[in-house]
């Protein structure tokens, strides 16, 4: 599943389309998580792509008269294709951009079709999908006092808390396990039992893990590829994730696995308290 770093890498990969004007839209399959607006071609025609930003795992493509809110769901991938490149299976949506001398295609592929492409001509941050999202992990708003306030009365396990997008966005399953390892905190501890000092370390750890994953091009457990077709390689550097029974890189203890909220969680019984 694409997590925040993959989405950010995708956004960066799409920046060559900025200032292009839409000249055609082809929708081969409307049924994503929500049906794709069947007027999309009429709406987007002749509109210029002004900018690309990101909020959580949503990419916001700003056009002259509104926004496309894009979510990759479980298996969405976006590539920039040339006109010569024939669509393959699961290439559901093509948006053609006139770039002056050439045309470029924004091509959305999604095997499982849990992704979303939604048009809005209103403030996208007020859209129901985005309005209740917590702060970005790399923003100053996400700091130790903020997180401490959030956890201090929560009985929920700490791993579930940091994966709650109302608390902080973009800390998916892999990055939650990795951040907790770096912070030395067991994933199955109750949120309210975690001391302020530990929260400080945890916030720092989340920022480090997310930042370094973005730098390395995102993780690629299943089928994530960045827009230029290169696969990320952060998975080679996971310290605990998917490393059950392998030696801890820090102390040689075997990495343990437990299920938390139906998700696999990995930790070192010695390095994490
Ligand atoms: Zn260890």
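^ Assign residues to that structure.
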């Amino acid at each position: 599943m694409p997590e925040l770093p993959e989405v950010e890498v995708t956004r960066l990969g799409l920046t060559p389309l900025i200032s292009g004007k839409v000249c055609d839209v082809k929708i081969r399959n409307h049924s994503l998580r929500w049906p794709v607006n069947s007027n999309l071609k009429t709406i987007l025609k002749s509109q210029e792509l002004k900018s690309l930003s990101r909020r959580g795992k949503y990419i916001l493509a700003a056009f002259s008269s509104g926004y496309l809110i894009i979510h990759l769901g479980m298996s969405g991938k976006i590539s920039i294709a040339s006109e010569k490149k024939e669509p393959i299976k699961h290439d559901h949506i093509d948006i053609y951009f006139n770039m002056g001398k050439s045309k470029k295609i924004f091509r959305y592929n999604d095997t499982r079709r849990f992704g979303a492409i939604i048009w809005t001509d209103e403030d996208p941050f007020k859209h129901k999908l985005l309005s209740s999202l917590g702060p970005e992990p790399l923003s100053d708003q996400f700091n130790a006092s903020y997180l401490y306030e959030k956890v201090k009365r929560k009985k929920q396990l700490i791993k579930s808390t940091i994966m709650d997008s109302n608390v902080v966005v973009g800390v998916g399953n892999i990055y939650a396990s990795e951040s907790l390892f770096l912070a030395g905190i067991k994933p199955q501890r109750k949120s309210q039992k975690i001391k302020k000092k530990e929260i400080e370390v945890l916030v720092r750890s989340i920022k480090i893990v997310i930042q370094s994953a973005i730098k390395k091009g995102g993780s690629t457990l299943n089928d994530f590829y960045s827009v230029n077709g290169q696969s990320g390689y952060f998975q080679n550097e996971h310290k605990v994730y998917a490393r059950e029974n392998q030696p801890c890189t820090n102390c040689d203890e075997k990495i343990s696995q437990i299920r938390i909220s139906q998700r696999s969680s990995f930790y070192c019984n010695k390095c994490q308290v």
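The radius of gyration is 20 Å.
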